Amino acid sequence: MTVISGAQSLARKSGFVGRDVIHRWEGNPIVSLQDIPFGCNTVFNAGAVKFNGQYLLLVRVEDQCGRSIFALARSEDGYHFVVEPEPVMTPAEKGVFGKYEECGIEDPRITPMDGTFYVMYTAYSHYGPRLALAKTDDFQDFERIALISEPVNKDGALFPRKIGGRYVRFDRPSVGSTGHIWVSYSDDLINWGGSEVAMTTRPDHWDCSRIGASAPPIETEHGWLEIYHGVKETAAGPIYRLGVAMLDLEEPAKVHGRAAIPILTPREYYERVGDIPNVVFSCGAILEERTQEVKMYYGAADTCICVGTAKLDALIERCFEQEGSERAERENPANNGAMCSAT
Ligand code: BMA
What we know:
The protein is mainly beta and 343 residues long. It is built from five helices and 22 strands. The protein has one domain (29-335): Glycosyl hydrolase domain, family 43 (Tachylectin-2, Chain A). The strands form five sheets. Strands 10, 11, 12, 13 and 14 form a five-stranded antiparallel beta sheet that branches. Strands 15, 16, 17, 18 and 19 form a five-stranded antiparallel beta sheet that branches. The termini are far apart. Bound molecules: beta-D-mannopyranose. Beta-D-mannopyranose binds at residues 45, 106-107, 240, 276, 279, 281, 299, 302. Residues 45, 106-107, 240, 276, 279, 281, 299, 302 line the site of beta-D-mannopyranose.
């Protein structure tokens, strides 16, 4: 007799056995080293947005010295991209930004708000990574606004509208080698506070070591849909996967649902092999208004950029339907599926 567990039977019913809900584009990777018109080491995590009818990726390019800069890639269809001949943003050389960007600028997340495009990114220096904010109206000129956290803090993603009259962001302060997703607030985009933890690592899951926001949240009628990354440390090094959660529209530190299983896990060769193996890491997703399909852009193995798609509804269902989420919720209702971790 074959015994099927609750989780297995639910997975079979939903048709999720052995598959990621994100469908990889057959033409992946969409941007690789050979597509970069200037000398560099790798290209990976990219912010994504639609602008003047085009798809834009603000791609992280690691130069041959090992410092990251940003370049712009344009596309008419969201799949075939051309990278501009020169970088659009490089680490500042002077002043306060120069001091804190000496090791590079990384992982840009783009949030359109009131006709301006905000770019939250990681400023890297030997003092440690901290969050910085810049803005642009045209993706040619970028104006730095402020350094907006102390080190060690990464994975900043600005919400696309104010909540309760305040700007809101996700961030990820580190606690040793672990870290959870927090929500912080600001009146002016410069001074941030009121921080509260929103989602924590889950010790018996794929996101047990640390988690961080990936794409800026997408507003839905059910709440803020957040695609986040989770890390599991293994004997062979970390595995980075992507997951999804639904947070309250008015109180975004409240989690209403969190999928137990990842929406994307490294499986393809280009996700498994590269500078950092076994990594899928997203900084941007675009919701197609007409088809309600999400195009999620992600860095693979810190070596190239890929795209995957899923219906918005399928991602929303994932937040609520997983047996594991229900189990975690039962075990710790206050934390909405998250459990305390000592790692
Ligand atoms: C994180 C960030 C990402 C990177 C990932 C895997 O800490 O630095 O940019 O993709 O590690 O190396």
